[in-house]
Amino acid sequence: MSDTLDSNPHHHDHQPLAPEQILSREKAQRMAEFFSTLGDPNRWRILSALALKEMRVRDLAAAVDMTESAVSHQLRILRTMRFVSYQKRGRNVVYGLKDHHIFNLYRDVSEHLDEPEDHP
User: Fold this and answer.
1) Where are the alpha helices (DSSP H) in 37-99?
2) What does the record list as coiled-coil region(s) (predicted)?
3) Residues contacting residue 93 through CB under 8 Å, at least 6 positions apart
4) Quick one: DSSP state of residue 13?
5) Where are the domains of the chain?
């Protein structure tokens, strides 16, 4: 599968695709659930703040202009889908992006939306 991801997505050849090259139904379902988590603009704002630095709920709530309760609720959802992780540091709990995949996803989507459209 990685060969198909690394190849040019616009490459046109006339070879039929093998069934194992196509995403399985199970993985497609997991991907749909993953991306449906991002259907909330507040979650994107939280991810954007965490892309800049790790933060406590209190600081994150101030940064995104939401209540701590609302941020905690969104963080639970993001944590369940493995977008964010947390560490206890003394008496503080600090949240950050789960890994470089989530950072790259955030960065790539943001850059994609900032690009001018190729076609009218």
Assistant:
1) 41-52, 57-64, 68-80
2) none
3) 56, 57, 86, 87
4) -
5) 18-114
